[in-house]
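In practice, a research group might receive sequence data for several interacting partners and want a quick structural hypothesis before committing to experiments. The following worked case mirrors that situation: the sequences arrive first, and a predicted assembly follows.
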Amino acid sequence: MREIFPVAPYPYTFGRYHEPIARVKPEETVVLYTEDCFEGKVHSEQDLPSKVAGKYLNPQTGPIYVEGAAPGDTLAVHIHDVTVTRDWAVSAQIPFFGGLTATTMTRTLQDPLPEKVWIYRRQEDGRFAYSDRFSIAPHPFMGTIGTAPDIEALSALTPFTHGGNMDVPDVKAGNTVYLPVNVPGAYFSTGDCHVAQGEGEACGVALEISGKVTLSFSLIKNHPIAWPRIESPQEIMTVGSARPMEDAARIAYTELVLWLEGEYGFEKWDAYQLASQAGKLYVGNMVDTYYSLVAKLSKEYLTAR
Amino acid sequence: MREIFPVAPYPYTFGRYHEPIARVKPEETVVLYTEDCFEGKVHSEQDLPSKVAGKYLNPQTGPIYVEGAAPGDTLAVHIHDVTVTRDWAVSAQIPFFGGLTATTMTRTLQDPLPEKVWIYRRQEDGRFAYSDRFSIAPHPFMGTIGTAPDIEALSALTPFTHGGNMDVPDVKAGNTVYLPVNVPGAYFSTGDCHVAQGEGEACGVALEISGKVTLSFSLIKNHPIAWPRIESPQEIMTVGSARPMEDAARIAYTELVLWLEGEYGFEKWDAYQLASQAGKLYVGNMVDTYYSLVAKLSKEYLTAR
Amino acid sequence: MREIFPVAPYPYTFGRYHEPIARVKPEETVVLYTEDCFEGKVHSEQDLPSKVAGKYLNPQTGPIYVEGAAPGDTLAVHIHDVTVTRDWAVSAQIPFFGGLTATTMTRTLQDPLPEKVWIYRRQEDGRFAYSDRFSIAPHPFMGTIGTAPDIEALSALTPFTHGGNMDVPDVKAGNTVYLPVNVPGAYFSTGDCHVAQGEGEACGVALEISGKVTLSFSLIKNHPIAWPRIESPQEIMTVGSARPMEDAARIAYTELVLWLEGEYGFEKWDAYQLASQAGKLYVGNMVDTYYSLVAKLSKEYLTAR
Amino acid sequence: MREIFPVAPYPYTFGRYHEPIARVKPEETVVLYTEDCFEGKVHSEQDLPSKVAGKYLNPQTGPIYVEGAAPGDTLAVHIHDVTVTRDWAVSAQIPFFGGLTATTMTRTLQDPLPEKVWIYRRQEDGRFAYSDRFSIAPHPFMGTIGTAPDIEALSALTPFTHGGNMDVPDVKAGNTVYLPVNVPGAYFSTGDCHVAQGEGEACGVALEISGKVTLSFSLIKNHPIAWPRIESPQEIMTVGSARPMEDAARIAYTELVLWLEGEYGFEKWDAYQLASQAGKLYVGNMVDTYYSLVAKLSKEYLTAR
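A structural hypothesis for the assembly, expressed as C-alpha cells:
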C-alpha cells in the first residue's frame, strides 16, 4: 500500500496554491501520515505553545491530486482506518483561544486564562491518562479533512464548505466523508489527528497526536454538493460551519432536508418534518473560526418507506 | 396518589403572579396532567393552528407551591414517569416560526413557508406513524418544566435560568431536573409533553400530545444554582438557554465546569480539560426565544478519581 | 402642570402586574420625575454598586394608565423636555456586565474586570467632567421607556417589542416615541435618565442621573405596530432589540421598509432599495439583555416623491 | 501623476498569490482606476446579475507592491480623491444575498426574494436618481480596500483584519485608512467604488459604479495593528469585521480603547469609560461574509486632555 508522508514546509491552508505532494487514482487505497497540530513540538507541561510552537498550527498532509476529479464532482473519502502513531497525546489551554474564554474574535478587555499543557499517556488498557486524575477512552479521528476552495486559500484552522478544520468526531474509520470538488484534482488534505475529543472541543485543543489514516477515494461525477456530508453504516450526516452557531445548525439541517428530498424521495415538507422529529444535532466544535454542527438521521428512516 | 389537573384559564407564563393550583410537600409523589401545546385544538390536517389555536401556546399545569421552598434553595424534580394520554400526536409548520425559516426575531422580507399539520397515530408496535410515510419511536418527555423567575413573568415559550420551554429530551422518566428557587414555594409548572422530538426541534413543533407526569420534589436548602441541571443514572447535564447559540453552549459548559469544581473536587482547569475531552453537547431546541443546549458528562469520570 | 413622582416600592419590570400610579388623559402634558438607575445610592468612587446598590436596577416611574388606550392602538409619546435634576452623574464598571467583558449571558472562565465608579460633575459650561481628565457634552435622554407587554412582566433591564431599556439617545426632547399598546391603559413607564451616552453604551453604564421628563400622549386607535418607532423633526426611525445583534438590525430595517410601504406609498422593493442607499443604522446598546439598533431615514426622502 | 489600471484577469481575492501589477514608492501619489462590482456587465433593468454577471464579484485593482513595506509595519493609505467615472450607477436585489433575506450562510427553506436591478442616473444637481421615484446624494467611497493576509487568499467579498470588503462609507476622500502589512510589499488592492450607500448596505448592493481613486501611501515601520483604522480630520475610527455582529462591535470598541491607551496616554479603564460615553458605533455592512462595524471618537477628546 502506498504511504504518503507530509512534506515540509507543510501547507497551513486549504487551497490551490500549493503543489500536490502526490497523485492518487480513484479506488486506490493509500496511507497518509499526519503530524500533530503543533508539529510535535509540545512534549511536556513545560512546553508552552506560545514559546515552542510555530507561527501556524495544523500542518496538513497534502494536497493530494485525485486523478479525474473535476469541479462539480463530489469526492467520497472512504476512511478505512485511523491509527495513532505514538503513545502520548497533548492538550493545552492557549491564551485567547477556546470556548470558555474571550478570543481574538470575541474580544474583551479581560486577562486571558493561564496557558497550560496537559500530557496524556496511553495506559495498558488503551485509554489515555492525564497523570492519575482521569483517563479518556480512545476514539481516533481526523480533525481536518478537506479539498481546495475554488479561489480562496483558507487557513487550516477554518472549517467551511470545503471541509477543513471541522473537528467532528464522526470523521473516523468506517465512515465516508463527501466533499465538494472545486478545482481540478480536488487537492485533498488531511491532518490534525485527535485520539479523543469531546463534543464542542470546549478548550479548543483535543488529545492531539500524530496519526496515520488509511483511505481511498471515489468520485461522484457531476454531482455537486454545497457542504460536507458523512455517512456511517447507521446514519447519514451533514456538517454546517458558520457563525453565529445557529447559522451552522440551519445549514446542517437544511442540507439534511435537501438530501432527503433530492436523493431519498421525500417530499420537502415531509423531509423537514422527519428531521424535526428524528434528527440528531451535536456540536463538533465551538472554538474554531467557524463553529461546526452535525445533523444526523438514522438510516432506518431511509429504508422504512 | 394525588392527581393534579390543569386549571383554566391556564397560565401561559412562568412567574409569581398566578395563584398556585396546589400545594405539595417535599417527597410527596404526585401525578400532573398536562394539555398539549395547542390545548388539544388541532385534531386534523385541516385544523391550521392560525385558525383554530388560541392566542397563547404551551398552557402550563401549575403553579405548584412546594412547601418549604425558599429563594436560594434548589428544587430537585424527580421524574418517575411520563405517560401520554392519547393515541395520536400532532406536529405543524407554523408561518414565521421554526428553525429553517425567517421568524419574528430573525426577520426577512420573504414569504413564509406554507402552514401545514401532521397527525401521527400510535401503531400496534407503539411507534407514532404519519400516514404510511414514516413512524417515530416514542420517547416521551416534558417540553416545559420550570419555576417562577424572581420578578419577571416569562412566556411559556421561553427557556431561561428558571427552566421553562427548554424542549430538552432528557427531561424524561428516570431523570432528576434541578431548578433554582427564586420565590417562596418555587411556583413549579410543567407542560408541553412531547412523545418524540428530534434534537433541535427543527420545525419548532414536536409530536405534541397530552400527558401525565409522575414526580416528586426534594429541596436542597441554601444551595443556589444559576441554571437548570439534569441528572440521569449515567450522566450529569447542564442546560444553557441563550442567543446566539454559542452563548447557550458557553453557559452549558461553564456550568458543567463549575459543577465539577464545586461538587466533585476537580481543580478548575482540570474540569475544563475533562469537559473538553469527554463532554457531549447537543442542541435541545434551535427554535424557541432562546436556544437550549445540553452539555453532559458520563458519571464514569466522577467515580474514576 | 401635573407632576408625577415615582412611588416606592418602585417597579423593576414592565408589565400589567403593578397598580398604576396615575391616570393621564391623551393630550394632557405631565411631568414625570425619575430616579437614576441605582436609585441614587452610588455617590462617590468608593460606593461600589455591588456593595451599595439594591438587588434590582432601573426603577421605573409608572405604570401610567393612559385613558382610552386599548390593545391594538399605538401610543405616541411626545417628549417635550428632558431635564436633569442634579449637577452630577455617575458611571461604573460592573463585574460581568458590559460590552467588552464576559457577562452572565456570554460566559467565560475569566476573571471579571475591576469594579469601578466614575463621578462626573457639571461644569460652568454645562459639560459633565470626570475630574480633570475629560468632559462630556450633555444630551439628556430616557434610557427606559415602554408599555406593558401582554402577559409577560419583563425586567426593566430588557428592551423588546414594548420598548423598555433600549438605551437609544434619540429618545430625547423634541422627538415622538411610538409604542404598541398591549393592555388596556397601556401601562406606560419611563426612567433611567442619561445625561450623556455613547452609541452602544460600551461599558453598560451611561452618565446616570435623576431627571424630569415633560411629555404628553396621543393615541392612534386601531393601528398596531410591532416594534417601537421614533420620529424627530428630520427623521423617521425604527428600533429593533434582539440577539444576536444582526437580528436587531434585521428587525430595525424590516420595520423601516414596512413603514415606508405601509404609510408612505412606496412599493416594497423600492422601499428596501431606498433604505439600502439612504438609511442610517447605529447601535443604541450592545450591553443589555437584547441589543438595540436604530435604523433611520431622512424625511427628505418622504417628501421628495 | 501615474495612473494604474486594473489588469484582467482581475484578482477576486486579497492574498499573496497574485503578481503585483505595479510597484509604488511611499509618498508617491497615484491614480487607480476601478471596475464596478459586476465588471460593468449590468447595464439595464433587464440585465439580471444571475444571467450576465461573471462567477466572481468585486474585481480588484491590484495588488500594488509598496516599496519597503514589511510584515509588522502599518500601511497608511491617504485617500486624496474618489471620483466616479460614469454618469450612472447600478444596484440590485440578488437571490439569497442581502440583509433582509435568508442567505447561503443564514439558510432557510423559503423562496428567495425576486431578482431585480435598479439603474440610477446622474441628474444635473449631481444626485443619482432612480427613475422619478427617488434620488440619492453622492458620497463616493471605496467598498474594498486592503492588503494581503499572511498565508490566506480571502475572497474580495470578505472583510477581515486585512481590510477587504468592509463597505464602510468613511473610506473616502480626505481620510486615511491604516492597514496591517502582512507580506513584503503589502500587496495593496482596492475596488468596488460606491457613489452612495446607506449604513448597513441593507440589500447588499450599493450604488455600484466605476471610479478612480487618488491616493498615496506612508509606512509606519515596526508598528503592527490588529485591525483597520481610519482617521478623518475630525475623528479616529476602528473597524471590526466578524459574525455575529456583536463580535464586530466588540472588536471595534476594543481596538478603540487600546488605541486610546497605546497612543493617546489614556489609562485603560478611562479609555473604556470615554468610549462608552462619547463613542459612535455604526454598521458599515450587515450583508457581507463578516459584518463590519465602525467605532469612532471625536478628536476633541484627544486634545482636551
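Before designing any experiment, note the following. The radius of gyration of chain C is 19 Å. The CA atoms of residues 25 and 179 of chain C lie 16 Å apart.
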